[in-house]
TrEMBL record:
It holds the Pfam family Spore_GerAC. PROSITE patterns: PROKAR_LIPOPROTEIN. One of its GO terms (cellular component) is membrane. Keywords: Germination, Lipoprotein, Membrane, Palmitate, Signal. Residues 224-392 form the Spore germination GerAC-like C-terminal domain. Belongs to the GerABKC lipoprotein family. This is Ger(X)C family spore germination protein. GO terms for biological process: spore germination. The keyword Membrane applies. Residues 20-210 form the Spore germination protein N-terminal domain. InterPro entries: GerAC_N (IPR057336), Spore_GerAC-like (IPR008844), Spore_GerAC-like_C (IPR046953), Spore_GerAC_C_sf (IPR038501).
Amino acid sequence: MNKILLFMIGMLLFLTGCWDRIEIEDRGFVIGVAIDLPENESVEQHTSQEEANKPRGQARFLATYQFVNPAALSGGTNQGGGSGEPVFNLTTEGDTIMEINRSLATRTSRSPYLGHTKVVIISEEIAQSKHFANVMDFLLRYQEFRRSTQLMIAKEKARKIIEIKPDLEKLPVMYIQSVGQNNYRSARMVAPTEIGDVHHDLLAGSSYVIQRIVGSDKEVKVAGSAVFHGKDNAFIGWLGEEETEGLNFVKGELEAGMLKVQVEDNLIGYEIKGATRDITVDTSNIDNLKFTIDIKSEGNIPESLETLSWDRIDVLANVQEKVEEEVVRITEDAIHKLHGDFKTDAIGLGQYLSKNEPKLWEKIKDDWEEGKGYFGKSSITVNAEVEIRNTGVIIKSEPVQD
């Protein structure tokens, strides 16, 4: 009998439930976060000596959380007498992001929950400062954030982006996320960058890029990219839209897109249906590693502003050559910015050496982007091969005759 009693008491210890459980109806679901520096820079005047004596960070942050209003989405009414909008934003300032997160609980009846956050937008000011590493530390460390949460860098205030009011979408953050996932249609944006991707690059010491976003009152544009150094998480600079397109080509991460190419006296459109890259390297001189990147692409011609006879082999060959020249031009522009100006290997050549030349990589990895700067000393040659699969449903484009 005593053994049974002890067994029952022991089982009760394991059936106490979740001590920190919050009922779902009491949660405030945050779907987006925007992080800025305060307007008055980093130090806010305290209203009391007690506040002034509290521990402080080196900067203050301004964070805007976008909450979902389930009642408005379901067509119900707010018991609290709210406006009935499907989302509402709360903005708070604090010395740390976690302090901001906790202080929001004093302003809303529902405890903020970040487990469903879709997008975190970080301002250019934060990215350019040493505090970007602190923000990333919180995003990686805090258990509520999922590794699939998407990151974007705003070419302005992040708060301005998250406060847009799109005409056709109820949830601004979901609209922003959807635009950021259109890289399969546009070559001028990099693939969506997730928190887990940045963590992987930081552990590997690999430089990386994050999508750039700009916005107006009702819409956003995701194009171009922000470049970060993998060793210290420092912002290096921006790649423009065309340079980002070139980067996608040399990284072999281009899914689709459109190139406009000059042929004779007018333009034709080349619709990219796929692209691959192959890297080879001459390691005979460690102080001048010679990389060759061979790009292969295939696509269609959906538009031709130049009068051409597409059924002629020489015409098709000439257009393919012009497209190849354009691919080489935009990739060389991207390489010039990353290799020549930034000295930052967001191309992934170090990763290639790590996989294919491990002994050499062990010897030079600490001096790849820094120290002796083997990346900056290397040379990179790009070749392109284009195949046009389809020229459309007509084989000849001519002016209409009266």
